[in-house]
Design goal:
Layout lengths: L13 H20 L14 H7 L3 H11 L8 H10 L2
Length: 88
């Protein structure tokens, strides 16, 4: 098992965010080619395909979340962005 943690200082303007999004997708692709998974960063720059490939049970997880927390008391902006990415 191998874990890599990156600390990246990025520009917060549109160009900097676009660069970081592209970099994130490239790193995720490298991880997936090795049958790995990636930690879900709070900036959702990965694609729906990348998410579903790394976390094949993501839909079941979100369904269970909805069942156990129908009032969405325990939600976060990350979960909301993931649901939007998946069209849920």
């Amino acid at each position: 098992m191998l874990a890599v943690v990156l600390y990246v200082n990025q520009s917060t303007d549109r160009a900097g965010r676009d660069q970081m999004d592209a970099f994130t997708r490239q790193v995720v692709d490298l991880c997936l080619r090795s049958n790995g998974r990636f930690f879900l960063p709070y900036q959702v720059a990965y694609t729906r395909e990348q998410l579903e490939r790394a976390y094949p049970q993501i839909h079941e997880f979100l369904a269970a979340r909805a069942e156990f927390d129908p009032g969405r008391v325990l939600t976060s902006t990350l979960v909301e962005e993931i649901e939007a990415l998946l069209g849920q």
